[in-house]
Amino acid sequence: MIKPAKEYSSINIDGIRSIRGHCLRKLMRGKNKIPDYAGIYVWRYWPDIPSLDSDNLKDFIKELQYKFPQHLENIKNSRVDISVKRTPFGSKNDGRLLGIKSENKINKILKILDGDEDSRQVFAHTLEILISSFPPIYIGKADNLQERLTDHFEYRTDVLRNIEGADISIENVYISFIKDDLSNPNMEISTGIEEILQRLTNPVFTKRYG
Q1: How far apart are CA 73 and CA 77, in angstroms?
Q2: Which of 54, 122, 161, 181 shows the greatest Cβ crowding within 10 Å of its Cβ?
């Protein structure tokens, strides 16, 4: 008897949360637990969904749309001086819902949020999977992750000041690590990977690539 083929699995919430990394506040409290190997570190804004209450979910979506850090880039030469502000969802007051403009699509989402709790649970998990695809807010490299992140935590860089200036809670910022076993001590591989990730994802608080 031929057994039916097992279906390929879809992305699930537990698998996605494993790439979120470690809460910034916990890392700041336990710096000695941060690995001291070489590698890449990725900062993400990844807020927890507070509850499945319909109004709370709607408020969470608004906060996510309004508070997600915006990328500000200055383009300047001898003839122009332009500041460009980019956000994944458009401006705050343009009537969009997480960047969606179609009233029909927006109403379908709102209908789910006003529906039963099981539907809101599925929507919340789907939303968190989407959050995992948002651009990181910072990407860096280090020959010693513990030492470099301690530099950030003790304000020897501007990353925490930028986060505070964006009015987002450090409770909602997470850091994950990519270990570099190939290029220590000259960091050639990490340097390349860092720049590739920066160019692909355009982190909000990264001032220059590489």
Answers
A1: 13
A2: 54
